[in-house]
Amino acid sequence: MSSYDVVLALHIMCVLGAFFLSGGLHVSEYLMKGAGTVAEVRRLTRTGRFAPLFAPLVIGIFGFGLALLHIGEGKAYHAKDAWIATAMVVLLVLFLDGPLVLARYGKKLEAAVAATPDGPVTDELRAAVREPVPWAISHANTFAALSVILLMTTKPSAAYSVTVVVVGTAIGAALGLALSRR
Fold first, then answer.
1. Using alpha carbons only, what angle is made at residue 150 by residues 158 and 66, rounded to the nearest 5 degrees?
2. Where are the domains of the chain?
3. If you compute the radius of gyration of the chain from its CA atoms, what whole number of angstroms results?
């Protein structure tokens, strides 16, 4: 087993960790929509406390990815390859939009939950749970990450790389919007 194999395994573990975390947060989103009581919503919003774990996972994905390029120096792949550069941009966006955008909506939802007395879910709280922006962004992020996996496996040209990420992100955003309304 080489150092490349170890770093590749760590890179993949960070990716899997990010997808497991994303899946847990998406499940909580879906369950919150159908919650009948404020207590249920309160319980489900606790999952959002794990969202800050995305930062070290994204840093790990990026760092181990760079290490793979360094260890494999002189081989076929370089940071300037379009599919790698596109993936780096996606990781930067994912790293920034979590704390800058999604965290703001998470705090807004937590405040709405805290301000709502126990009992059935109010219309105001239901509206906060169904806020379309975080639904669109969280699903866009997940689909952008899935698009990067496609780039990693197919290693396409620049035009194809950008197209895959833009289309994947748009599909994720549209899905998130649609699910926030259902």
1. 70
2. 3-181
3. 19
Phi-psi region of 119 (alpha: psi -120 to 50; beta: other; left: phi over 0): left
Q: Quote the CA–CA distance of 143 and 28 in Å, as a whole number.
A: 18
Q: Are 143 and 168 within 8 A, CB to CB?
A: yes
Burial class (CB in 10 A: 0-12, 13-18, 19+), 18: buried
Rounded to an integer, what distance in angstroms lies between the CA atom of residue 139 and that of residue 135? Answer: 6
Mean pLDDT throughout 24-53? Answer: 95
Q: Where are the beta strands (DSSP E) in 7-148?
A: none
Q: Which amino acid is at 3?
A: S
Which tens digits make up the pLDDT trace of 92-127? 999 999 889 999 999 999 999 999 999 999 999 999
- Which neighbouring-strand residues pair with 37? 120
Measure the CA–CA gap between 177 and 182, rounded to whole angstroms: 9
CA distance 97 to 119: 33
Residue 50's contacts (CB-CB under 8 Å, 6 or more residues apart) are 21, 24, 25
Q: Is 160 exposed, middle or buried (0-12, 13-18, 19+ CB in 10 A)?
A: middle
Kindly state the greatest CA–CA separation across the chain. Answer: 63
Q: Whose CA is closest to 55, among 105, 109, 18?
A: 18
